[in-house]
Amino acid sequence: MIVVDSPVGIDHLRGTATPSVRRLRAFIPGGQILVGDLILGEVLQGLRSETEAIFVEATLRKFAMASLLDPGLAIVADANYRRLRRLGITVRKTIDVIIGTFCIERGHVLLHSDRDFAPMEPLLGLRTV
How many angstroms separate the CA atoms of 82 and 64, rounded? Predict the structure, then answer.
């Protein structure tokens, strides 16, 4: 499955033509998209009206959904964060470490446009598209 990070989803909803959005649009017909609960929350937070939020939520719920965090995954994500810090890399947002760790541990691929994921690829084994 392909986990889509919230900035890519938001750009898609806004009609912004980025390379990541073009990749997302290519994957949608294949039904390979997985929406994480935290990512769903981030996308919905950015909407201005209840009407828009209801529509976007209904649209995203057509894809497979998953919870991105449980106690075991929280421990692994924290270990990944500390490993990156020891290597001199500070990930700016905790949620990015959670998303990256979820993908690594569950065997998913991440579609993103965020520089915080870049060191996770070679150092933690994060697979991206």
Answer: 30
Beta carbons within 8 Å of 76's beta carbon, 6+ residues apart: 101, 105
Count of C-beta atoms within a 10 Å radius of residue 120 = 26
- For 70-124, the pLDDT digits (tens) are 999 999 999 999 999 999 999 999 999 999 999 999 999 999 999 999 999 999 9
> Residue 17, Cβ neighbours under 10 Å: how many?
10
Domains of the chain: 2-124 (3.40.50.1010)
Calculate ∠ Cα 1-127-36, nearest 5°: 45
Q: What is the pTM of this model?
A: 0.93
Nearest Cα to 33, choosing from 62, 9, 66, 3? 3
What's the rounded mean pLDDT across residues 25-48? 93
**pLDDT higher at 105 or 47:** 105
Strands (E), 5-119: 33-36, 64-66, 109-111
